Amino acid sequence: MITPLRAGNSLRLAVVALAVAASSCATKKQTASTVTLKTTTTPGGTTAATATVGPAGKKEGIKKFADLVGKVKADTGLFSTYKVDGKYYFEIPDSLLNREMLVVTRFVKTPVGLKSFGQQYGGEEVNDQVWKWERHDKQVFIRVPSYSVRADSTSDMYQSVKNSNLDAVLAAFDIKAYNKDTTGVLVDVTDMYNGDVAAISLPDNIKKAYKVSAIDASRSYIDTIKSFPINVEVRTLKTFRAGESPTDNTNAALTFELNTSMLLLPKTPMKARLMDARVGFFGQAQTDYGTGAQKSEVTAYIHRWKLEPKDEAAYSRGELVEPKKQIVYYIDPATPKKWVPYLIAGVNDWNKAFEAAGFKNAIVGKVAPTAKEDPEFSTEDARYSVLRYFASDVQNAYGPHISDPRTGEILESHVGWYHNVMSLLRNWYFIQTAAVNPNVRNAQFTDEQMGELIRFVSSHEIGHTLGLPHNFGSSYAYKVDSLRSKTFTSTHGTAPSIMDYARFNYIAQPGDGVTRFYPQIGEYDLWAVKWGYTYFPGNKTAKQEKEMLDVWTKAKAGNPLYYFGRQGTSIDPRLQNEDLGDNAMKASTYGIANLKRILPNIEKWTFQKGEDFDDVQSLYNEVIGQYNRYIGHVTMNVGGMNENFKTYDQTGPVYGFVAKNLQHDAVTFLNQQVFKTPTWLINNAELSKFDNGVVIGRIKAVQVNALGNLLNPSRLARMFDNEAKSGALAYKVSDLFTDLRPGIFPAGKPDQFQRNLQRGYIENLRLFLNVDASASFPGATSVQLANYGLTPINIAFSDIRPMVRAELTRISNSLPSGGDALTSAHYADLKLRIKEALYPTKPVVNVVNGAVGRFAEPEQETEVDF
């Protein structure tokens, strides 16, 4: 879900792009004129709101503390809080002024039917921000510090960085009173929390979607403010005037309950650990002017929990030691009870990984306490990490975390668990294993079967909350034939990392005896946790720790079990979602063989008395979707490059082209399994139960889109690059055209699928001649684009057009004539299409953007986080 990025080709610039979107809202002046909001737009387009909080009209003077508060009892904690005549006050001690505090706002309750914006259910995060309360004369300000640039306080650059990194003012408050010993001040926070300050209010995307005009103060209120030793929790109900509603427009409003946690950050920040592109961790980057380098340098820190041994001496002796503070995840009380043990097991499974880092009992899943057991416990409280269960038809789950922006220390996490993820698990587990797994040949799984799948997903999501991103390169470590071994899979699962998108074992064949079909916490996961969480005694700097970790990393280099492959690039065929094994052609051949076994038995294996055929239709579509995944896995080999991040002191290339024979094998697979009509997908006995004339067209679309994806300009650009660098060792564009011809134009009379495919081939080639796709994506450099597989190419000045012209001419000259009326018309049509491509009568179309994008997209599938 959240993916590390690499800046340039330097490992020192390896940074992460966090998919934690901080929504900013433009707001208007409050109706009651008590909160003045000013919006500003930065050069990058970010809108920010600041608030000046105070009574309208003439200002009141500073009162005596006793006169203002009277006999109202304080709710003591981080700040002592008071409620007086409907107003809420914070007593801010001088000792906490200028201390950094993490502020996290979450939904508590939301309207039914909200559109999917990434946050729409109770428990999901709306925003997080760091605040500092600062006193100036008779006012208190909330300042919002930035951590994008830094310099050590001992550096000559420190003052210069401070001068160009001024903290923004979010809100201003008049001091209402001084406390009894004048060591603190009292401010009225009612209007800020009850208002529409962007940092603690409705996100801008929902406002825009439902045409929100303003907050309605008459229908909004502060529910509770509670203070605890290191945090203050504020629960509010906010009603917004809205032009649209998810359910009933007559209300002309949207109402939400929100909770804002203000959590004191450690006075002494945790020691940061520098990132390494060779080991996968989420992280954060900043420009550091104090490193001593002769340039501004980007440094990046990993996200991790703070784990320190209770007994440092025993830890140093190599004994397993409990941490001073255990990582605890609570299960949402709204979770169906039968799934709770499996979710907890998914959390606890990570203890074996922490043992690799020298800790025992480092992490635990627990049932959330009841109100009777702990009346102060709240699932929205930022002190607690919670697995939240959503009554939703979304087929997904996700595992975010919130970290200290100064050091990367993970402070809490709220895993999002959508109820309908079970539907996805059932469908995929059936489609990928039913050929060899009789236990899934039912309309519904047993609770034990579903529970084990839930445990697997729980472990994956908890991995994200520990700082681990997806490792798309992990599954490549296992040989395809190893995944047909009962002994191997029982021990190792389907990949060395549960953080890969290595789902279920579609490779195992009938008779292999395989009984374990899904991933587990594996070799890579143990290694990554050891790398990220091992405690180094003494007062070593982050740079000194990195030098020690470099030794570990180089020792693992070249071993595929410990390889990290980033998510987000389409350049390396090893780094794909939903794939298994070290050879996509071989693995996909096994997978298709299993689909051929499953498809004719869908109705039989999912029989439900008295039910219609919706489930048959759904699973039939899943078969086509799975088939399409296999096609994508194979296609990535053509024009592919392997990416292996290295440092100066490591030998071998960082980037190397996929071997010529593998690229040839990939095209051979496509000819045999895709371009040759997949008649096995046309099962009339099954189709007659639900298909009203769309499946045949969908199969044709799969074929043509696969061809369009193969002829991607970026792919051809890399093939030309390979030819220039490798000569005869390269798989060339001319080789691709030669290999494709017998697949697209086989001998004999073409059927309707082949005719459709031949037209698709001509049209794809025609685009290269009739579309000027020489522009690039605005704001992105060619290096940045190539990083993600969008290799730029200026088609008009490349060798593509000469090659395409020659190929079209060759096809036109080889087309037969005659035959029956339909075949004759088809060939005549192809010749006309080729003529129009070679000698266009219409002007060339100029593509301003998307020059390196696909000419034809493969079928889209639902993105899931786990």
From TrEMBL:
Keywords: Hydrolase, Metalloprotease, Protease, Signal. Transmembrane segments: none annotated. GO terms for molecular function: metallopeptidase activity. Residues 62-110 form the DUF5118 domain. The keyword Signal applies. Residues 123-310 form the DUF5117 domain. Residues 443-747 form the EcxA zinc-binding domain. This is Zinc-dependent metalloprotease. The lineage of its organism: Bacteria, Pseudomonadati, Bacteroidota, Sphingobacteriia, Sphingobacteriales.
